[in-house]
Write a structure and sequence with these properties.
Elements: E1 4-10, H1 16-28, H2 36-41, H3 49-57, E2 61-66, H4 67-74, E3 86-91, E4 94-99, H5 101-106, H6 110-122
Parallel strand pairs: 1-2
Antiparallel strand pairs: 1-3, 3-4
């Protein structure tokens, strides 16, 4: 486990039915999509190239979880309930909010998300 990493938690569950519903919402009615983080980092069926390039080049350890996966993985240690999507920062065994749902939902494009992550990670 990395000593310090970001945990991205999508406002979606990991089952196939929800994944298909998510793709349909993106295609047919993007404004009704429930997860801004997903909309920023993923296209219809795969990770956006610019996001993937940033993720690999940044040097920041990152984990990506759906909300059901996060709640299962962290339920014994971190009982706090969050509003999703959210980006958390884990430093050893401490877990704090890196970017909350309110902030994520205000971000309009991928470039702004990347800039915010770089700015906050460096501070």
């Amino acid at each position: 486990m990395a000593l310090k990493k970001l945990i991205f938690v999508y406002n979606a569950n990991s089952n196939t039915k929800e994944t298909l519903l998510d793709s349909a919402k993106k295609l047919l009615s993007p404004s009704t999509h429930d997860c801004k983080l997903c909309a920023l980092t993923y296209g219809l069926t795969s990770e956006k190239k610019k996001w993937k390039k940033f993720r690999k080049a940044s040097g920041i350890a990152m984990d990506f979880l759906h909300k059901d996966e996060y709640e299962k993985q962290f339920k014994s240690k971190f009982a706090q309930q969050y509003t999703y999507p959210i980006i958390l920062i884990q430093d050893h065994y401490d877990l704090d909010i890196f970017m909350n749902a309110e902030k994520l939902n205000q971000i309009e494009d991928l470039d702004t998300l990347i800039d915010e992550i770089e700015k906050r990670w460096g501070s």
